Amino acid sequence: MELPGAGVNSNECESVSSKQEMSEEFEANTMDFLVDLPFATIDIKDDSEITDVPKVNLERSKENECNNKEQIKKRKKKRKDYQPNYFLSIPITNKEITKGIKILQNAIIRQDEQLARAMSSDGSFHITLLVMQLLNEDDVNVGIDALLELKPFVEEILQGKPLTLPFEGVDTFGNQVGFVKLAEGDHINSLLEIADAAKRTFQEKGILAGESRTFKPHLTFMKLSRLPWLRKKGVKKIDPKLYEKFIGHRFGEEVVHCIDLCSMLKKKQSNGYYHCESSIVIGELESPSSVVLQRYRREGPSWPSGDKNGGEPDDAELVRLSKRLVENAVLKAVQQYLEETQNKNKPGDGSSVKTEEADRNGTDSDNRK
């Protein structure tokens, strides 16, 4: 008895197999290219598997198989065109951590000066939760909406508890990307849940998001891919001896306060951080200080003083800026109230016009007398 599907042409099978190999090779090449961008490693479920042919109604199954192949082609085309250009970032701002990273970077540069330009710049330290493709302003607006919808999911995961990330030790991805490791603990599970919720939320909005690799949260401090010419000079990997003194080093703890939607390609802010489209505050109410910090990250040190040379504000500066923000809001409300009150007495509401006309009539009458 001949099994269903046994009559399928062997050339077709070879063709399908060849296409699958080409697709796998393309995906591998794409991942090599994307390593230069601020990516997390997030797993994407592969939806392109072909289901078994049913044993009944063979003609209908062949028709369905053709439809499946067309859908697979469309999915593969989308994946080929998928070039992430935005990402969700957890900014790392604890001065103890950033100072420790600078010490690490300088120690490596002292051993090999040509690696200086491979280092991540000041102000750009972050953990990537999710990467995505946003092609235009409409997509960016959808991404902002998705970020806002993510907040209640994050709050449900954290249950009112702060998310503290302790950084300890150094490692690499294939001796090409150097990063500071997250110490083991429950915070890892919370971070994984948040990353999964983010991917689900953005994908449900129709946004192409995620990667094909397993998500491993990390804090990048250098990438050899920034200096491709080093390969010609024989520097093809990060030598573990360069950072061996920091393998067990404790860099400090970061309390997560916000998640930012950032652009990989737009010009960075003057403080070194990525261009930020929007943010959500994590683990606290939106206090004036958090609002100030979010606006500062979006607009850079030029806000509100106009000085573009300053670093990120410290606690005292945040308090000062918060007070100014509240004072400006109160002043604006008072001005608006006064304007509305004055508008009621301006010509146009009827009563003042009638009064003026009455005064004029009375004056004319007196003059006639």
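The record above closes out task 2.4. Task 2.5 opens with a second protein, given below.
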Amino acid sequence: KASRRPAPRLLNGCVPLSHQVAGHMYGKDRVGILQHPDGTVLKQLQPPPRGPRELEFYNMVYAADCADAVLVELRKHLPKYYGVWSPPTAPDDVYLKLEDVTHKFNKPCIMDVKIGRKSYDPFASSEKIGQQVSKYPLMEEIGFLVLGMRVYHVHSDSFETENQHYGRGLTKETLKDGVSKFFHNGFGLRKDAVAASIQKIEKILQWFENQKQLNFYASSLLFVYEGSSQPTTTKSDERTLTGKFLSRGQLSGTEVLEHNNNFHVLSSSANGSSVGRSLSKMYARHCKMYSKKHHSQASLRAVPMGQDNGWESVSQEHLNGNVLSQLEKVLCHLPAGCQETAEVEVRMIDFAHVFPSNTVDEGYVYGLKHLIAVLQSILDS
């Protein structure tokens, strides 16, 4: 592969945020987000009144002497805040120093979803309201908008990205499939990540249902989950995860190979269309195996779901490196029940339009509930 030029370093070793999926981009817009070597991001303050309003919000929530239980609880759902920072060469440029929520991930899959029935605040001009409504007329009815996503595909070791136009193109009919794309790694649907995301959103919803002091407009949820296969054995182990899987017993006969809806593999047929197949035909009853002494003759057999779409029965001796590699990647993405709960972060971001209130934020609550319903339908399908 041709060597890529390193990203230009600026501002004490910072670089433009490489995996940003939405919002103001550094170098493209007048303000943007930078990645700091210490595991934080620097978000340049927007022009007034938006920038000062967001700064005021962070200072209020993270005030050292804050005794408001509602705000203290809110901190759990935000990136950590480390104050403001300005470069020595440009002291008038102010940056919010925030936790990089993606920092701990190897291959972070990221989605930015704007929440609420209105993407404009109560003080917006009629021109601004018209502009925002025209961007996504369905916002009032759907209650959220996918602003962008970045999804890691295991088989190609690459990321697929979608920008704001992708989300704006989603209708009521295509919304479910449009959101589910974020959880599809090229092999199958990461239902573990979907389930973990629902749990995180429900906690945020609980906070919103119990507070009447703030209303959020044009604010987003940032979703992050680990896209790469995490090795479960060390190099010193002679047997790989797949080897252990195969060696524990012969998998043949329909008694063992019962269908499991939790995981589907996509394979390309001759005409290029994707055909959903159940990888879990190779295991059954949540990883329960039938062992035999002579595991060297273990075989995999699956009942074809269509012409030329079935797995052939293969002996362990005939699993070449390529098949073994592909199978191992898939087995690292088994659904919940065969692996631990997915590592997922869901954080609230973008607070340039947060205002004091004395009522429940119905618009945000509506959006959260509909998003949970869509994710639940993806999980149940």
